[in-house]
Amino acid sequence: MSIFKRGGVYWFEFVFEGKRVRVSTKQRNKDKARTLEATHRSNLASGRFGLAERKKIPSFKTALADFLSWSEREHRAHPATYRRYVTSSVALLRHFKDASLDKITPDEVERFKSARLSQYGTVRGKDKRTTTNKRIQPATVNRELACLRAMFNHAIKSDVPLRNPIGKTAAKALREDNEQTRVLTYDEQEKYLARATPMLRDVATLMLETGARPEEVYRIEPKNVHLEENYWFNPHGKTKAAKRRIKLTVTAKGILAKRMEDAARRANADATASNSQADGKTEVDRGEFLFPCETDATRPVPKVNNAHDRAVRDSKVTPFRLYDCRHTWATRAVEAGIDLVTLAAMLGHAKINMVLRYAHPTQEHQTKAMDKMELFVSRQKIAHAERMAPQTSFALQ
Predict the structure, then answer these.
(1) Three-state DSSP class for residue 129
(2) Average pLDDT of the chain?
(3) What is the DSSP string of 356-395?
(4) CA triplet 87, 159, 33: central angle to 5 degrees?
């Protein structure tokens, strides 16, 4: 009898009259699962239950299109997830093409991984894509494997009789040894911001002042900014912890106040143009963003990566990612003495261990910490010697 465990419960699988039967027993006890399998076999043999028609296994191309269509609807509140799947699907479709899903084995997934790691990245130009001299990184391949895993899970939930080729006992994700520990110095920060465009300067400064994620800054709406109370509320994120109040520094408050004024001015101009002002007062459009897309103010700017790359190049600082502004804030917060529990909440993390990915104490801070430790131990030794001195004198008498 074919009994196997998946998702913490036992399933059974066998062939009956040329058709494959796969059923979850919903049992965690293996003996009970075997009993249920025997009962199911008996019921099928006696004709008490009709055997459901086996679902036809789709091709990879068909299954992927169905998955992406579902993801677009399912992740409407998190469009970045859908866009990530779309990006990852390109390499997957190029490799697996029209292969039947049941032909995609763990070995075939391993071949995909090897093939991808031997390829070079591309950059999009005005008319075509150009190949770079940088090989595809493990992190990129892992994002593609995550898309493949999610696609198979979606197909399995639709009752397609399959096993996911990516899992604990099948093809696994690659090890990523690409942890970033880049922290800006104040001198680098000043040179970089001096070369940044106005929008990039405001985005990067807000990240350096509050530790917010880039997309959290892009999606700031006027209705979520509370200048009098010195915070803005971020309603976005996959976890409850990500949806939080973000305290404003004086610098951050000044940037958002200016952005609010600009948004009100745009709203006023739009209202004047459409002759929709009833009483001479204009409110900021509730659907407008403080960092609007140039072509559509009702959408946030998608990203400022090109402006960031130019600013890094022109400022001649050591290359870093825009996200490293968040790393920099977190590191400075640790050095300022903020405890990890509080820091995790401020960064919008549900787990404290996630903070360790962002907080990287500088060598100077580590040196000062060791100096403090040495001074503390030295004082403890002196205090101990002073406490022992009277006892030593008494013993000598």
Answers:
(1) strand
(2) 84
(3) GGT----HHHHHHHHHHHHHHHHHHHHHHHHHHHHHHHHH
(4) 125
Token reading at 394: 């008494």
Whether the CB-CB separation of 173 and 109 falls below 8 Å is answered with no
- In angstroms, the CA 44 to CA 23 distance is 13
**What b/e readout covers 211-238, taking b as 16+ CB neighbours within 10 angstroms?**
bbbbebbbbbbbebbeeeeebbebebbe
DSSP single-letter state for residue 99: -
What whole-number distance in Å separates Cα of residue 9 and Cα of residue 24? 7
Inter-axis angle of helices 138-157 and 60-74, nearest 10: 90
Q: Which residue has the higher pLDDT, 237 or 101?
A: 101
* CA torsion, ordered 207, 213, 217, 223, to nearest 10 deg: -120
What are 284's two structure tokens? 């900021």
Q: Which residue has the higher pLDDT, 32 or 44?
A: 32
* Alpha carbons 247 and 234: distance in angstroms, whole number: 11
Average pLDDT over residues 344-363: 80
Are 88 and 143 a contacting pair, CB within 8 Å? yes
Contact between 259 and 222 under an 8 Å Cβ cutoff? The reply is no
Residue 285 has pLDDT above 50, yes or no: no
Can you state the angle between helices 186-195 and 305-315, rounded to 10 degrees? Answer: 120
Question: How many percent of the chain have pLDDT more than 90?
Answer: 45
pLDDT in tens, 193-223: 999 999 999 999 999 999 999 999 999 999 9
| Residue 296 confidence (pLDDT) above 90 | no
Nearest CA to 287 out of 274, 275, 277, 299 is that of 299
Rounded average pLDDT over 372-388:
85
Give me the torsion for CA of 342, 344, 349, 350, rounded to 10°. -60
Q: Is 264 helix (H, G, I), strand (E, B) or coil?
A: helix
Q: What pLDDT is stored for residue 109 in this prediction?
A: 92
